[in-house]
Amino acid sequence: MDQVPASGNGARRNEDIALDLLKFVAASAGVGRASTPSTGFVAASAPKPEEQVTQLLELYARCLRVVEGKPA
Description:
The chain is an all-alpha fold and 72 residues long. The chain has a domain at 48-72. The chain has helices at residues 11-29, 49-68. The mean pLDDT is 79.
């Protein structure tokens, strides 16, 4: 199995951690998931795919700042 060489500055590691954090937060909060209306309830309109992508990119940037210890 091929291994990706680790970079000397640890940037890749921070990116991987931020990506894992993004996946956890997005799954927990339901970001990027299509919503289905519940019986008897009026559902708010689902965000457009472009809006979901923007939300995910902003969330990743926030996760990366947290992992790097930078202020939000």
